Amino acid sequence: MALLPILCYPDPKLHTVAKPVSAVNARIQTLIADMLQTMYEAKGIGLAATQVDVHQCLIVIDLSEERDTPLVLINPQLIWNSPETHLNEEGCLSVPGIYDGVERFDAVKVSALDAEGRSRIIEAESLLAVCIQHEMDHLLGKVFVEYLSPLKRNRIKKKMLKAQREERA
Ligand code: NI
Question: What DSSP character marks residue 12?
């Protein structure tokens, strides 16, 4: 297993649209293991392949306290969403230190392949539903700050670029 570098906003590579995974093979399984290790190390609850600069439709999530219940979604497709939405405070490993409100569906139903390539349907509500929607956005090249006002987004962009300059210095 290996830790993978996480792309940081406003890296333009975060806006790449991911391609479907064509086969759940050994290469994908290594990527899953590496992404899980990377997410756990970064203390995140979700990570999309886009964030580690791999532009394939693959997401890992773990909402458990013990960090021992990984959920792997390959080629996820939204098949249903609740009519209700609500505002949730979100953060992202690609936008460290920034938290803000995003409107999301309360519940979603998603079809996906699991880590063994089996087709399954996931019914999610509350935090899991929010997390799945956030990670699926990454696969479309969308970062949560893009839901915020241009003013807020520019402020975040400047803050991120400054932090990245200071880190390199
Ligand atoms: Ni994110």
Answer: G
